[in-house]
Amino acid sequence: MSSFNYENGELKIEDINLSEIAKKIKTPFYCYSYNHLKEQYSKLDQSINLADYHICYSIKSNSNQSIIKTFSKLGSGADVVSMGELKRALKAGIPSQKIVFSGIGKSSEEIEFAIKNNILMFNVESIGELKKLSNESSKLNIESQVALRINPDISAGANEKISTGKAQDKFGIDWKNAVESYELASKLPGIKIIGIDVHIGSQINDIEPFRKSFDLLVEIIEILRAKGHQINVLDVGGGLGVKYHPNEIPLNVNDYGALLSEKLGGLGCKIIIEPGRLLTANSAVLITKTLYIKNTESNNFIIVDAAMNDFIRPTLYGAYHEIIPIKENKENNLLDYDIVGPVCESGDFFGKKIKLGKIDEDDLMAIKSVGAYGSVLSSNYNTRASINEILVNNKNFEIIRNRIEDDEIINRDKIPDWV
C-alpha cells in the first residue's frame, strides 16, 4: 500500500498524518487514498493492448459515489448487480452504454428500469431469466442486448465463498449447454444476442485459471459463430487478486493484460473486464481506537471501537488483514494479541495472534486493505452507528459518507398504534 507509510513515527495517508484526521473525525472510520485509486486504474488500463475494450468497474466491491465518480472520470464503465447499483452508476456519470447488468436474480422491476435506461447489455445467467427478459423487452417493444454467462467449471481462488465458476456454483449456464442456450435465445422475441460472459471467481492470484477460461471462451465463440450467432462482445469478468498478507504474491497485472491481449485480441470482439477488488482493496484503511487491553491466562485481547458490523471480512471469509499501530512501534518485545470488537459475538474479531509491541488504551490502529467489500458489507447490528468514510487527496480530505448515529437508526422504526 504505497499510499500508506510511516514518516517520523507517524502513519500517513498520502501527505497527511492519519492521527491528524482522527482528531477531527470520530473513530472508527474508513479512509481512502484518491491517488491510489487513480494509479490502480491506470496500471490496469496501460497493461491492456487491445483495440476495443472497456474497463467496467464492479460496483459491488465499493459503491461509494466518490469512488465510482473517480473511475467514471477516468473513462470507466460499470458492472452492476442491482437496480440500486445501476442508479449509483448513472448518478456518478457513467454512460448507460458502458453499463452491464450482471447477477442471478434480476427482478422484473430491475429489468424494466435497465431497459428504459438503455444499458449496454444484460449478462443473463439462466434460461428462466432469459425468458423473463424476453417478456419484459417485448412489453416495451425493445430489443435488449444480451450476453449469456457461461459457467466454465474452472476452479479459481482459495475461498469457496467467492468461487463463481465451478459446476456446483449458482452462477451462469453450464458451458456444455452453451450452444443449446444460444439457439433458444436467438428465437425469443425482444432478445438481441451480442456476446458471451464469464466470471470464474474473486481474489485469483494465479494466471492459469484465466488462461483456461480464455481458451475455453475462444473455443465456444468459434462454435457459436459457426452456428450463425453474432458474438461481438466478450465479457471476461474480474477476479484479479491483490496483496493482503505481507508474504502474499498478488497476480501481476501486466501478465494478465498481456494474456488478455494475446488470447482474445484476434477475435474481433469488444472486450469487457470487470475489476473491483484490484482497483479498491488497497486504497483504504479502517482507523479504530483501542478501548481496553485485556490479558487472560490463555490470551491477550485488544478491544477496539470498530466491530464486525463495520468490517465483516475476517469473520465472514476468514480473511487476513494486516493490523498496525498509527504510532510506529519498533520495539522487539512483541506479544500475540487478538484484535476484537465490542459486538456480542465470538466472531467479532479482526485478527488473531497478531504480533504487536506495547499498546495502550486510546491508541489508534489501522486495519489495512479494506477498500473492497468493506463498507458495502457493513450493517447496524447491535444498533451501532454507520461510520464515516473519508477520501484523501494529497494533504486534503473530505467526508464522502456521513456517519449515521444510533438515534437516526432507531427513529426509522415505526410502532403501530395497536402495539
What is the structure about, briefly put?
With 419 residues, the protein is α/β, with parallel strands linked by helices.
Distance between the termini: 53 Å
Q: What's the pLDDT, averaged over the residues? A: 92
- Please identify the structural class as seen in this structure: alpha/beta
Largest sheet properties: 9 strands, mixed
Low-pLDDT stretches are 161-167
**What fold name stands as the CATH topology of the largest domain?**
TIM Barrel
Number-wise, the strands total 21
Written description of the protein model:
- With 419 residues, this protein is of the alpha/beta class.
- It folds into two domains: 4-32 and 281-410, Lyase, Ornithine Decarboxylase, Chain A, domain 1; 34-279, TIM Barrel.
- The chain is 28% helix and 26% strand.
- The protein contains twelve helices and 21 strands.
- Strands 4, 14, 15, 16, 17, 18, 19, 20 and 21 form a nine-stranded mixed beta sheet that branches. The protein has an eight-stranded parallel beta barrel with strand order 5-6-7-8-9-11-12-13, surrounded by four helices.
- Helix 5 (108-116) packs across helix 6 and helix 8 (208-226) packs parallel to helix 9 (253-264).
- The radius of gyration is 23 Å and the shape is globular.
- The N and C termini lie far apart (53 Å).
- Residues 161-167 have low confidence and may be disordered.
Provide the descriptors you would attach to this structure in a database record.
single chain; 419 residues; alpha/beta; Lyase, Ornithine Decarboxylase, Chain A, domain 1; TIM Barrel; 2 domains; nine-stranded mixed β-sheet; eight-stranded parallel barrel; 12 helices; 28% helix
